[in-house]
């Protein structure tokens, strides 16, 4: 009678190492791409091993080991890429991937994600080796493996999105959004146009205002909102969920669909960013505004500088321009300036603008809450205690307080007279330490307006960041066409938004099929079949079958 083998004997068998590697990979993928909590990883891996033992996967058999390479290796690599993106960003936006590759990813501050990418690559090697071993030593897996390869390809959201977009281009279908696009036009300006200060708070969504989930980390912004107009329910549609896309959505009223195949020189950086649409800067520059952009990160990253320079801004200042002007030029984070330094320079720039004749506009982008952990400056450490390096709620509280103090400081110096202040998150947060709490319920972006004689109130809407452009224009006193600009509707009007009319799911579904608006965004680049000065596309607003607003029909 053979003695019962002990656990160490099991571990001497290659198949258990191979099966363990595959089980851990399966568990990690499951908890990363689904709402399952991380503690489910061990049970999933254990369940895999139990099933493997029951079915004798990889056990010695009369079949000789094969020597070929599994067809599923490439599909597994694609899944590895998708899991890495999901682990890094929470929600994988293919548009963000394509746009950053084309607009430029140099001088980014995501050094820690580069390290994670290397670790993911190294971790994939034993997974691929384990799968190869299993297929070669178990004829049952070998027989089903080609079918598995097709299943892995068909179920990968990364490849599904690429295929769906490609099908829309080949079919030349998709003008649903284009038919609802309204050229931003200022019909009438106030006699004394107000100045404009836009403070983008990186990833600092309004969801953090839920005290049951997040305590008082959002309280400084709540206090500011009590003095102005707060919009609750500003959702995020696809292709607006990263910084450049969020700023374009809120300033141009459109989602950012990457140039992609519309750009002849695929491997060259974009010379212009969404040149085919008018944006906030274009409209204000035509009204005589002096416009400045200030950001702590490099203006070369993701085409940020090209966007602002191409849409009416006369001064575009990023890390390289601003770092020499701070007290300690070496005191930078991996992205660039800390927000306390950036805000000091913002005050200086507004003082300069105030001395000039004519109205001014300034757009400011913070960094303190940039995923995955944030970059709180020493000022917050003095007030909040030590930062553990991972708690995003610490960074949220820090950023909210600094924005509050910036507005109070400017108001105290009399620099906000006849000024509309806009405070908005550029997009919803990507994966952070509070991810499970953030995704536990509906999420919305921060959007509030202060000053310019607006009566304090809270407005509950179902909207998107594309509605910010017309709302800001009307809050400044400009009269615009049908209360609309781009795909947005002024939230100060009674007109329904696209989200209210159709819902987020319909908008996102139509966005995947859209080609006509895509061409409009990049009109002016070398687009196949469209000359740079092509004006053949109908410009008439509101071409949809829906009835136009009553005042437009009169």
UniProtKB/TrEMBL annotation:
Its EC number is 2.7.8.20. One of its GO terms (cellular component) is plasma membrane. Signal peptide: none annotated. Residues 194-477 form the Sulfatase N-terminal domain. The chain crosses the membrane at residues 39-56, 68-85, 115-135, 147-163. Its main location: membrane. The keyword DNA-binding does not apply. Keywords: Cell membrane, Membrane, Transferase, Transmembrane, Transmembrane helix. Residues 528-554 are annotated as: Disordered. The keyword Transmembrane helix applies. It comes from the Bacteria. InterPro entries: Alkaline_phosphatase_core_sf, OpgB/LTA_synthase_biosynth, Sulfatase_N. One of its GO terms (molecular function) is phosphatidylglycerol-membrane-oligosaccharide glycerophosphotransferase activity. SUPFAM superfamilies: Alkaline phosphatase-like (SSF53649). It is a multi-pass membrane protein. Pfam families: Sulfatase. It is found in: Cell membrane. This is Phosphoglycerol transferase OpgB. It comes from Halomonas elongata (strain ATCC 33173 / DSM 2581 / NBRC 15536 / NCIMB 2198 / 1H9).
């Amino acid at each position: 009678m053979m003695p019962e083998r002990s656990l160490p004997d099991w571990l001497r068998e290659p198949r258990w190492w191979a099966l363990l590697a595959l089980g851990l990979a399966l568990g990690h993928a499951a908890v990363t791409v689904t709402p399952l909590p991380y503690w489910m990883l061990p049970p999933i891996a254990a369940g895999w091993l139990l099933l493997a033992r029951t079915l004798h996967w990889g056990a010695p058999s009369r079949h000789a080991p094969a020597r070929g390479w599994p067809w599923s290796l490439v599909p597994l690599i694609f899944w590895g890429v998708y899991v890495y993106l999901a682990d890094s960003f929470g929600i994988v936006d293919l548009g963000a991937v394509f746009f950053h590759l084309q607009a430029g990813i140099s001088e980014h501050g995501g050094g820690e994600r580069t390290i994670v990418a290397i670790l993911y690559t190294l971790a994939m090697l034993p997974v691929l080796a384990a799968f190869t071993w299993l297929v070669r030593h178990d004829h049952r897996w070998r027989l089903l493996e080609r079918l598995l390869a097709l299943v892995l390809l068909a179920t990968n959201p990364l490849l599904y999105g690429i295929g769906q977009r490609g099908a829309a281009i080949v079919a030349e279908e998709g003008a649903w959004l284009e038919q609802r696009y309204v050229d931003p036009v200022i019909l009438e300006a106030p006699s004394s146009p107000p100045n404009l200060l836009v403070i983008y708070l990186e990833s600092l969504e309004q969801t953090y205002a839920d005290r049951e989930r997040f305590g008082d980390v959002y309280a400084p912004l709540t206090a500011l909102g009590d003095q102005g107009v707060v919009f609750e329910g500003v959702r995020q549609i696809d292709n607006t969920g990263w910084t450049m896309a969020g700023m374009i959505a809120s300033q141009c009223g459109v989602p950012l669909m990457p140039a992609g195949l519309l750009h002849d020189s695929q491997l060259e950086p974009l010379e212009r960013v969404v040149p085919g649409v008018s944006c906030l800067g274009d409209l204000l520059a035509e009204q005589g505004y002096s416009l400045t952009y200030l950001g702590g990160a490099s203006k070369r990253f993701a085409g940020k500088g090209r966007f602002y320079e191409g849409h009416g801004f006369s001064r575009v200042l990023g890390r390289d321009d601003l770092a020499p002007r701070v007290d300690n030029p070496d005191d930078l984070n991996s992205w660039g300036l800390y927000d306390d330094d950036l805000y000091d320079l913002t005050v200086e720039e507004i003082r300069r603008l105030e001395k000039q004749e004519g109205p001014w506009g300034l757009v400011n982008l913070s960094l303190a809450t940039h995923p995955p952990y944030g970059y709180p400056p020493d000022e917050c450490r003095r007030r909040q205690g030590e930062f553990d390096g991972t708690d995003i709620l610490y960074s949220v509280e820090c950023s909210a307080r600094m924005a509050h103090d910036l507005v109070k400081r400017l108001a105290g110096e009399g620099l906000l007279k006849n000024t509309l202040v806009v405070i908005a998150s550029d997009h919803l947060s990507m994966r952070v330490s509070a991810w499970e709490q953030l995704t536990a319920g509906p999420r919305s972006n921060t959007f509030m307006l202060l000053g310019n004689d607006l009566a304090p109130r809270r407005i509950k809407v179902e909207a998107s960041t594309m509605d910010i452009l017309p709302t800001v224009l009307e809050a400044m006193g400009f009269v615009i066409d049908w209360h609309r600009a781009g795909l947005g509707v002024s939230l100060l009007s009674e007109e329904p938004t696209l989200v209210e009319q159709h819902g987020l799911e319909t908008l996102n579904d139509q966005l995947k099929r859209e080609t006509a608006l895509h061409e409009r965004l990049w009109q002016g680049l070398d687009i196949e079949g469209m000359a740079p000065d092509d004006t053949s596309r109908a410009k008439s607003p509101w071409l949809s079958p829906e009835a136009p607003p009553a005042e437009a029909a009169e």
